[in-house]
Amino acid sequence: PREAPSDVKAYSISSSEIRVTWKLSNPGPGKPRGYEVSYWKEAEQEESGEKRRTVKNETAMVLTGLEGNSIYLITVKGFNSIGQGPASAAVTAKTRKSPPAQPPSNLMWIQEGNNISLSWDPVKAKDNESDVIGYMVLLKQEGRGHIQVTRTINPSTMLSLPEGGTYIIEVHALSEGGEGAFSSQIRVVTSSGKLKAG
């Protein structure tokens, strides 16, 4: 390929992932068969970075396994059976801060019929962690694959248990950097609509 890919853009989608997009080089002699994306941390040399190739002539890639709260430089070049084309100008993107390490704690629940009202202590992000934007509550019935997921902005929610059985409830914080650590599990046993704490 004679020309570098154009309009390279990179933006963070979590604490460990950056999405890179670009436009095809002009078709013509030396058309690219695929693209190679190089990326390295700002404080490091390009030679120490990593390279990933697209499967085909794709014009987007998600880089994974990156460090949180870090600036990366990224270039894209086309390649074909003859060799590599020139690299695009480097673009930068900063990964988001990591999710909070602290899980939701002090889970409390009250049962009313088949409903459970659940609350917990809010998770506070540290300076080097990304802010909490909500919580995800997982309700699963033991012995069944099905998991019911409830999202809430507040540190509380109502859950309804559809039938008798043993249920496991877990909560984790959601942040811009991804999902935080899980709370300890609550086990709730219901028998035909009656509840006893497990």
Structural commentary:
By secondary structure, the protein is mostly beta strands. Helix content is 0%, strand content 55%. The strands form four sheets. Strands 11, 12, 14, 15, 16 and 17 form a six-stranded antiparallel β-sheet that branches. Strands 3, 4, 6, 7 and 8 form a five-stranded antiparallel β-sheet that branches. Strand 14 (165-175) and strand 15 (178-182) form a beta hairpin. It is elongated. The model has no long low-confidence stretch (mean pLDDT 90). It comes from Ataeniobius toweri. InterPro entries: FN3_dom, FN3_sf, Ig-like_fold, Striated_Muscle_Regulatory.
SSE series: EEEEEEEEEEEEEEEEE
- Poorly predicted parts: none
Overall, the morphology is elongated
Average pLDDT rating: 90
The residue fraction in helices comes out at under 10%
Structural class: mainly beta
Task: Kindly report how far apart the N and C termini lie.
Answer: 65 Å
